[in-house]
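Obj.: predict assembly geometry.
Materials: sequence records (below).
Method: joint structure prediction, all chains together.
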Amino acid sequence: MLSIILKDIGVITGVSGILAILLVIAERWLNNYGDCKINVNDKRELTVRGGSSLLNSLSEAQVFLPSACGGRGSCGACKCKVLEGGGPVLPTEKPFLSEAELADHVRLSCQVKVKSDVSIVIPESIFNIREFKSVVTEIIDYTYDIKGFTFELEPGETIDFQAGQYVQLISEPYAKVKQGVTRAYSISSKPDTNNAIQLIIRLVPEGICSTWAHTQLKVGDKVRFTGPYGDFYLRDTDADILFVAGGSGKAPIKSMLEHLAVTGTNRKMTYFFGARTPKDLYLTEEMESFEKVFDDFAYVPVLSHAEPSDNWKGKTGFVMPFFKDAIRDPKNTEAYLCGSPGMIGAVTKSLTELGVPKEKIYFDSFG
Amino acid sequence: MKPTGKELKTMQRMQPGVQTLSGFLGDDTRPLNEIIQDDSVVLDKLGRSREEIAKRMESLTQASWDSYLEGILVEGKYQVQTEVYRGRMPCPFGHPGIYRKAVTTLTNQENGITVVWTSLSMHMIGAHGFFEGRGSAYRLEPETLIKALFD
Amino acid sequence: MEISAFLLFWAAIFTSNILLTNFLGMCSYLSVSKEVESSLGLGIAVSFVLVFTTALNWLAYHYLLVPFHIEYLQYIVFIIVIAAFVQLLELLIERFTPALYYSLGIFLPLITVNCAIFGVSLFMVIRNYNFLQSIAYGFGSGLGWLLAILMLAGLRGKLREKMVPAGLRGTGISLIITGIMALAFVGFSGIAPIQ
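Observations (raw structure tokens):
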């Protein structure tokens, strides 16, 4: 009896044990890709642990390709040219790659797994994007749903950006939120101050990052972000400027104006701030002070829903009807717009009707 | 029916704190396919398809697109206003594509019903028949939504 | 068992379909048959696993269990072999054909708990098939299972817009359809005796 029991146990244990060992060996051998070299632009060589996606391997090596969906294969923002070592194109990549891109070896870096040495080509500007560690040094309540946060970098660290660019803020777990997310915010401080940045953050309903910033952050907290990103920046010409931005869209405009105050300019500038009620106005003193700093700058807040009880003495309605008076030579006027796609569409239409060339209308769209 | 692995992954992405603060399932204890199934029964009863509803929502959102500060009165009785926040979000169902963060508020002035939807919830209704779990921030009861959109 | 492997192969697909005649492998069949594409993927994966695990289990039975007179351990040993094989297959596919891995996705580990796979190995023992017959039976059963799930998926697709009584939606109507299909397949019974 005992020998039968022992024989049974022996066989089962033996079979399970052998198969388990086989599986462990197989996994070690199959999943171990060793160290892999990533050749970037034929200029830099990064050594990373194989097995992760190209996007993650690069970001661990401090090279940050843009991503709007966190590497899930949903947004198509992380494209890069993979000349060698990318393996076959996966079905998850195909929806985002055109025939021309496929022929050009463009891949979705979040889907490409680094299993061997890889050779890639990325735009030079990516090298300027880094991860920064910072500390909260100031929190300002601008309106009922907008706060300004100043983040100071570690001593000795500097960030090199153009006025109008944005960063990706990394939120930390809190309350029911178990993991951080990254969200984009325009830099509202001037690039001339390169050891700290300010972000203007609006509390978005159901927003993980803005709720974290508004309810959790205190002065002294550590915060990480990556950047700078974006191609919304001031063109260095002497054309007249029309700024149009409401709500949190004021951030990049503030950065541009503060920067111009440092470099000096005699361009004619007008900033139209469209909002609903006086409750939505903020940084009015700073904008009005620019009217004294610059030779020819006008700050024009326009409210669409001011009540008589608000005692609003300024302009009312939409901003578009007031453009005409601010434009002296439409062909020599640039426009910088920041806001919702609806606003940008409506304002662009109005400006082109007034003769402003479409190529001179630059915008940073929320959607 | 027991959720498949794909559904479980989708439900994980719908948990609070993963994509939005309170997630897409609210305090609903039913599995995803059951939520969709139960709502589709209501749709069948009222004779409206998910595509029809989504198309109507899209056309109303589009009408309010340019009036970004104020909202607009469509067809004489639908007050629609859309607000857009920066950034885009993927669909928790896990397929390619990211959706803008536009929040549309519609008030049917005739029956007084107000509903709120987002670009993502519009897509989830049209493509997946998903009206979000009971108790979630943007849950739309199919019956209320249909009354607001079509009556 | 005196039947040619070739005939056994065809019999396993049509006249003794593992799902429609023996009603094995119902869980993943019912839940995955919502879409035709995933049904195809799962069916192919199940066929693949069936061929190899039937062969491996035949070897395990005849060269390990029988010599030691521990045939009663077949239940445990077969399950262990199936689970290990599916796991190994997943690793191999992920490494060497990542495109296929992405298409099959979650279905690969789901196969381990498919009772059709276990059932086929047990039938092979009960009916005393030789090695070639076992492989033919395994492959045929896989294709038979694939056939059944594809049929249900196609039918369910057509049913989506129709007025099915509320209580029967989903599982209820699927089981009724499966029963009707099984009735149709009963017409095949006796054509090719495989046991």
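Conclusions so far: Chain B has one domain: 5-150.
To do: check interface contacts against the pulldown list.
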